[in-house]
Design a protein that fits this description.
Blueprint: E1 3-8, E2 11-15, E3 32-38, E4 42-49, E5 56-59, E6 62-63, H1 66-83, E7 88-95, H2 105-120, H3 127-137, H4 139-144, E8 149-152, E9 168-171, E10 178-184, H5 194-204, H6 208-227, H7 231-250, H8 259-273, E11 278-282, E12 288-293, H9 297-305, E13 312-318, E14 323-325
Helix pairs in contact: 1-2, 1-3, 2-3, 6-7
The protein binds (3R)-3-hydroxy-3-methyl-5-(phosphonooxy)pentanoic acid.
Residues 13, 16-18, 32, 104, 106, 138-140, 194-195, 283-284 line the site of (3R)-3-hydroxy-3-methyl-5-(phosphonooxy)pentanoic acid.
């Protein structure tokens, strides 16, 4: 088969990955733990075609810009090398949520692209191998191959670039009564991509080393709290991980927040003071993903809706990993 269609979902890291290991291979410097979200999706079709002279990549409604195109072609090149098939590919990919604005579009995008490309090339790979392939383009994408709560280790120091590192599922989607309220702070694309933000943080932040020391500890504690189903501890540790990551980035001048981010953080604190279980998580963009206990969703939504400048709230729940779908991706949802 030279054609495949895959669907993948974004994930939000509860303990954050920020910073890469030195050298080649795109290995994370710290471990991370995420939850894959249902209700938001990337749909991607890949078709290898001997008649094409070059890869034809359309993201959303437009031909891919040079930067994103190069990352897509990089993944296709790895698949071509593995399958010993030089044919170029037609790639069509679209998200049903804002792209490249810190809503983890690269996670679902590269998870769907990896799965569709591997299948379209006829490679008989395990999901771990597909996760490793996705990680080489975007480390967070390795986690979106799996559903529920998912862990990705840090790369071993000095590991050769060809070393495999895949994410692994830790607990199913119904493990915790979690709802994620994504507070959309802008519909515009972000100014600084995550790879660039990490690079600048690691090279310039006076707190880069503090982050690299702290992140694995927060990760271990969060992992324990998750396995013990301690909702409040998971929320508190997730918020601590996100604030520590952004503190290290901010000190290097890497500022992803806008005024809405700060307003929502304030609203969350006010909600907690009223005894509601709501905690913040923020990635490489201004949106706050509010981690809420399922029983508090209505009251928390009400408390967030008045935040000045807030565009809208997307409600998402833990869901399944990436999957192959039938058809060409242009018809009904799978
Ligand atoms: O995988 P990347 O390169 O898009 O980086 C993801 C970084 C964060 O979203 C901020 C954190 C994470 O662990 O997902």
């Amino acid at each position: 088969m030279s054609h495949a269609f895959a669907v993948a979902h974004p994930n939000v890291a509860l303990s954050k990955y920020w910073g890469k290991r030195e050298g080649e291979g795109n290995f994370p410097a710290v471990p991370s733990l995420s939850v894959t979200l249902a209700g938001l999706q990337t749909r991607t079709t890949v078709q290898f075609d001997g008649a094409l002279e070059d890869d034809d990549v359309v993201l959303g409604d437009a031909p891919a810009a040079p930067g994103p195109r190069a990352r897509v072609v990089g993944l296709l090149d790895r698949v071509r090398a593995a399958s010993r098939d030089e044919r170029r590919a037609r790639v069509r990919s679209s998200n049903d949520f804002p792209t490249a604005s810190g809503l983890a579009s690269s996670a679902s995008g590269f998870a769907a692209l990896a799965l569709a490309s591997v299948r379209a090339a006829g490679l008989d790979w395990t999901v771990e191998w597909v996760s490793d392939l996705a990680r080489r383009s975007s480390a967070s994408a390795a986690r979106s191959l799996f559903g529920g709560f998912v862990e990705l280790d840090a790369g071993a120091p000095g590991a050769p670039p060809e070393t495999r590192l895949a994410a692994r599922p830790l607990a199913p989607a119904d493990h915790l009564p979690l709802v994620v309220l994504v507070c959309v702070a802008t519909e515009a694309a972000k100014a600084v991509g995550s790879s660039e933000g990490m690079r600048v943080t690691m090279s310039r932040s006076p707190y880069a080393l503090a982050w690299l020391e702290q992140a694995p500890r927060l990760h271990e504690r969060l992992r324990g709290a998750l396995l013990a189903r301690d909702f409040a501890a998971v929320g508190e540790l997730a918020e601590a991980s996100c604030l520590a990551m952004h503190a290290s980035a901010l000190a290097a001048g890497v500022i992803y927040w806008n005024s809405v981010t700060v307003e929502v953080l304030g609203a969350i604190r006010a909600l907690r003071a009223r005894g509601l279980a709501a905690f913040a998580s923020i990635d490489a963009g201004p949106h706050v993903k509010v981690l809420v206990h399922a029983s508090d969703v209505a009251s928390v939504r009400e408390g967030l809706e008045g935040a000045p400048g807030l565009k809208r709230i997307i409600e998402a729940r833990p869901g399944e990993g990436a999957s192959l779908a039938s058809g060409d991706g242009s018809g009904d949802r799978p």
